[in-house]
Amino acid sequence: xxxxxxxxxxxxxxxxxxxxxxxxxxxxxxxxxxxxxxxxxxxxxxxxxxxxxxxxxxxxxxxxxxxxxxxxxxxxxxxxxxxxxxxxxxxxxxxxxxxxxxxxxxxxxxxxxxxxxxxxxxxxxxxxxxxxxxxxxxxxxxxxxxxxxxxxxxxxxxxxxxxxxxxxxxxxxxxxxxxxxxxxxxxxxxxxxxxxxxxxxxxxxxxxxxxxxxxxxxxxxxxxxxxxxxxxxxxxxxxxxxxxxxxxxxxxxxxxxxxxxxxxxxxxxxxxxxxxxxxxxxxxxxxxxxxxxxxxxxxxxxxxxxxxxxxxxxxxxxxxxxxxxxxxxxxxxxxxxxxxxxxxxxxxxxxxxxxxxxxxxxxxxxxxxxxxxxxxxxxxxxxxxxxxxxxxxxxxxxxxxxxxxxxxxxxx
Length: 412
Known about the structure:
The chain is an alpha+beta fold. Helices cover 19% and strands 33% of the residues.
């Protein structure tokens, strides 16, 4: 009987030791572009792979040092060496310095928003940078709509977020907090708000420290967030990592930082929310309003607010469409010019230039015809016939990128 009890006890202790805690690893600011930074990232990936209890990896902050496409690809080659799934949340250098304004991230890694859940908490990664909004921190309408849907699928009220900027610094943060009322929140960021340090927000532990590397291991216990700081030096010396304990903050009430809009005696006639980010202003013709959205959707509304037609160009629209004669003209940042009938919408005529476009303008040509002129990132000007989209002329005016829409006046 004693022997049986001893065997049972040993089996019990063995099962306890096998029940490992799962961790999420957080790598911040890899800034690939220098060999030393790449070496640091390789060492961090190798160390994470040796740990059997890491189930997910977040890479947060500036993936590249200068926004170069080759460096994005370099980072991807290193990170694809991870044995577990990982998500990317880019930083300012990736969006403001890159040729594609951060589109390289979606091209290589897919959506800029993801969620992942463990038994006791949920991870939500999302982007707070929209380059076309200058340096104002903003959570896109698509992200907020996606978040509402994601919350219905999560299995815990405890949420850990990963974003470049603190959520409270976004100009529409109140909408975010409204969505997650009733949940408990802890946030990791790459760029902390130095003016006011929040107890439920922790700045990432930079991978590229001087002459060393480091990352975080994250898990939870009840309402505590447990964070281990892993340092390359300490790994080699087999020193126990520093452990930080923090707590989830309940989301009950929030204070809006959005300005109060005073319409005085002027009332709102109608409003529509398409759950899409619009970067540019709308265009008007007769009784119709034309709006182009960041996700490539073009929507035509009557002046009453009722939708007439919509079309998806499958490219980013960042400049205002133009209505001329019976045609609506717009362009995508990827290099397509489109014309649609203002009354019927699709189908669209499309011509692909193959260069990033900076905006379009309509000019007068001979014989009472009109043309479309655009500038590109390669310093070229192109002119096409408005009706047929056939080429009229081209001119390389500079070796530098043309960044602003063109202005036409008095045949010039």
